[in-house]
């Protein structure tokens, strides 16, 4: 038996001896050996270096603090073979627990020197057993200090208990007209677990304010912190914009969504003196005022009044409201012919279509500022004038900020806009008019460093000048954990004139069935069917245009937004599926490379692309077409696979295959033969790779959470096929998708 297994067995025997419910999910926490009540347990077969094991335990406690978990008051180091427990108090290592450690907790611990243990307990005798039992019954915890390293973890824990709570309930602030102490200043839920936060303001958390929002408000605000290296690059664009101001003119730098002012923190004193700033979230407003009020020209509102605080927001700082647009403090600059406007913004960039309401400080639900906002209503009236648009275009906050910037503020020659946003606003949607906004310079940044997922976000300087450009060269920059800037090869971003919607075909069916599928390809039985679904014999599948999790299914997708693949059109439509499956493995391709239809049906004349798309679709596990018997007792068969007798197989038999393609088909036939030998195989069905992987390639989970496959040979060949199909796509399909501008 391996050392680890012996140690694990000894740990289980210890739990059983001392009546610790080790199968309780609250005992084995995040790679620790165990947390029981107010005790952190660390087991070793033999403890030869107490300091080394103690430091490992301290690192665990540090990580628990950062994650917002209660920190046990006792540290118990268990030497199993010797039946010795070394008892330490966590409070004696308060400073060490409040440090941040990187890497594995068990590594690099040799140089640590700790203090003496409180007690050494020999639990091989009854007296020692009683002493240890008394410790294990203790439910005491170490009250920790809240700082910028742990506040997000504790905030998430707080909101999990109080889903309707707001940032004010959690952090509070007692520097303004509204005195809200908040949980961290007056612990109630966390009483005895955290020490009261004693600093008057929240300035220390300025870079984390967006992450401290409750989940609903995170969606509503869509706010993201701007990393300093990217702020410095944006400042370079601002410098160019200022040089464009006519001699003798005044100018303002307007940022309607300044947050805590990180974007402005790198500006010169002269530039700050031209800044007009606002932010909608009250606690960000408090930090913004503390940081920049004495340096900038104006913050909206200039001072806090009795009515400034409104359910966690600033009552007069909603940039999407008519009152803000007509605010005389800003409008005087807009109306002044001798004053230019430079808008300088990292607006929220989220779709708020799923948000239905928020809660005020008393828990009362009220309507969001989404569909009721003035800008939403006004933009909705003209959305049909955009190059490509639908209602989701208006729902997106970033689009509303950008549209309203040009509609109400950027009206003079030499006005400029420096804006952070995904490229869709100019690439595909045409939110800004093509004929009077000139691209001066732009960057692509990694959205990962905005407390988001890795993808490309642009930062562009636009001028009010005539332009007919349809493609733009962007410099690309990433940063690392130390916030060092790294330049990558530049990328070209091209405008899109026609979206995939142009490929949609209207289908008038004769046999409505009322059935639909979900994103997994199986029949949807819980959600409302929002489309008319047919099961005519002419229908092979349904292609969804908009879902991120679903593209192809045997039945219509439950909320529609796509079209049917039929016997007549499926061969020419499969390249569209391939385009949507472009992997975007590089972060600066995500939110930068889009599907489009600018070259129309030109791609259908390339028989190699059509053939390759058929092969890829039928061998891809991302094709969610299935064979199944539905709730109406009808069996629907998957025709987009290469099982015997399918329409796809018949079509493939008419095409000339390369050696690579013949090898793929040989591999597929081997997989199909092995699948027919499995327990769950249904001879009435036609099987594709996705269904074989889901239903026939069965497995069990062992004690170490490893998958033990019932059919190792089948699983092995499926893995090989997955790799081969990916290589086939990269070699034979992706470049043609760009050539025919299915990708752009």
Compact summary:
The protein has 744 residues and is of the alpha/beta class.
What would you say this structure looks like, in words?
The chain is an alpha/beta fold. The protein has four domains: 134 residues, no CATH class; 70 residues, no CATH class; 267 residues, Rossmann fold (3-Layer(aba) Sandwich); 240 residues, no CATH class. The protein is 31% helix and 16% strand. Strands 8-7-6-11-14-16-15-17-18 form a nine-stranded mixed β-sheet, sandwiched between helices. Helix 19 runs antiparallel to helix 23 and helix 21 packs antiparallel against helix 23. The chain is flat and about 85 Å long. It starts with a helix and ends in a 5-residue tail after the last helix. About 4% of the residues have low confidence.
Rg, rounded, reads: 31 Å
Q: State the major sheet.
A: 9 strands, mixed
Q: What average pLDDT do the residues reach?
A: 85
- Strand-residue proportion: 15-25%
Determine the fraction of residues in helical runs and give it as a percent range.
Answer: 25-40%
Number of helices: 24
Looking at CATH, the homologous superfamily of the largest domain is Vaccinia Virus protein VP39
The CATH topology of the largest domain is given as: Rossmann fold
Q: How many domains is the backbone divided into?
A: 4
CATH architecture of the largest domain: 3-Layer(aba) Sandwich
Poorly predicted residue ranges: 214-224, 351-369
Counting DSSP E segments of at least 2 residues, the number of strands comes to 25
Overall body shape: flat
Top CATH class of the largest domain = Alpha Beta
Based on secondary structure, the structural category is alpha/beta
